[in-house]
Amino acid sequence: MDVKDATYHTKIDPSGIDMSGNGNNIILDVESGRVGIGTNAPDDKLEVVGAIRICSTLPTYSSRYTQFGGPAEYEPWHWDTHGVGCYINHHSGQNVHLCSSGAGKVGIGTTTPQSLLNIKCADTNNGTHSGQWNGSSGLTLARSNDNFRWEFVNGRDNDLMIRNINDNGNIYRDNVLVLDDNGNVGIGTNTPVVPLDVFSRYIGIAGNSAAGTYIGPGGVIAPESTLHDESITIRSEYGILAGTYLFVKSDNRIKTDISLVDDDHALQQVNALESREYHYIDPKRRKTTKTIGFIAQEVKEVVPNAVNILTDWLPDEMRVITTPQWDANVLTIVDLDMLVENLTGKCRFYVSNDPSGNDEIKVEIESEKDASGNKTNQFKFEQQYTNVFFYGKEVNDFHTIDKAQIFALHHSAIQELSRRNDALVAENAQLKTRMETLEAAVIVLQNK
């Protein structure tokens, strides 16, 4: 059957129904089992080109919903509207997965969002979670290519935790950051007791910086050489300001094998250790006049315990790459040798495109490897940059000083100098008394 007038055309035959007119199309294709609205060539079971409105004749504030589902063995999803809200939920238990209120607020896991975005997470029974976090789940930030993810968790004591989950779904780092309801922040601890409580650490990589387990092979205490630990908890690139005091643990009950320092030897060490005046290479650290201090390599020769080796940056380049050689986003620095043994392979750059440098950013990039796995002088950036400042390279033998040990040595040396001074004072008093006695005797002889 084929019916048409000047505006509308309807065609009905065994293959389906095709209706068109006034720029609109409705087609039912029996052969493909597809329905098209606003198109005469639907690509799916139902294809609608244009807006869709689904409503109900139920009274205002009554529940009205649209049901979506697959095969019969799968429970359907509901797009539900009632009152002034809109909900997406699963048929089983009617748990709300997404809610939009009339006030422009969105809720996930709740029908009563209290803010623009309100996420309510259900507890789980994962026994790998500890303490108040046992069974707690939260907002997840995941990568698309694996199961590694971050979780933001509201604990049962109303504390907030950020933790890391590994590829197996187990907790990798349980307490990366914790904020309790008292306003205390914890890093590496579940129970911060001061405004900033840090229990994490960075472990140095060189000879006198090691950390191991307390229990060694066979269940015995591990050798002291494997436990020696000079790890770092807080790192500051520049100064640290304290309004009152700096406290260091020094209770005698945490120490053993206590003995007196040989004051004479301490004085010899102080005499062997020279103070130096110097400028820093990095202009941001340089002062108007020279800084007075020590050279870590020299301190290591005299007081080795006062020196720790770790990974850090050297400002050993400090130059503008005047004609950057780019191949796509790979920068080649022709005169750079990255095969030096103590180099980690990372280099630091400050890059920009604005001639004024207003858009300058710091970029730390590991050098590309050749076919043999050796470090090269090529660096892959996210984009090309017009201005490239080469700051320096990361090394694995950066020397740091524990000045407290040097100052403690000074105390012992001062005690030795004080004793020597006391001896000189006593000797001087004796000589003075003897001289006075002799002078008196001379006067007596002169008067005879």
TrEMBL record:
<dbReference type="GO" id="GO:0005789">
    <property type="term" value="C:endoplasmic reticulum membrane"/>
</dbReference>
<dbReference type="GO" id="GO:0003700">
    <property type="term" value="F:DNA-binding transcription factor activity"/>
</dbReference>
<dbReference type="InterPro" id="IPR051577">
    <property type="entry name" value="MRF-like"/>
</dbReference>
<protein>
    <recommendedName>
        <fullName>Peptidase S74 domain-containing protein</fullName>
    </recommendedName>
</protein>
<feature type="domain" description="Peptidase S74">
    <location>
        <begin position="250"/>
        <end position="428"/>
    </location>
</feature>
<dbReference type="GO" id="GO:0045893">
    <property type="term" value="P:positive regulation of DNA-templated transcription"/>
</dbReference>
<dbReference type="GO" id="GO:0005634">
    <property type="term" value="C:nucleus"/>
</dbReference>
<keyword id="KW-0175">Coiled coil</keyword>
<dbReference type="InterPro" id="IPR030392">
    <property type="entry name" value="S74_ICA"/>
</dbReference>
<dbReference type="GO" id="GO:0016540">
    <property type="term" value="P:protein autoprocessing"/>
</dbReference>
<dbReference type="Pfam" id="PF13884">
    <property type="entry name" value="Peptidase_S74"/>
</dbReference>
<feature type="coiled-coil region">
    <location>
        <begin position="414"/>
        <end position="448"/>
    </location>
</feature>
<dbReference type="GO" id="GO:0043565">
    <property type="term" value="F:sequence-specific DNA binding"/>
</dbReference>
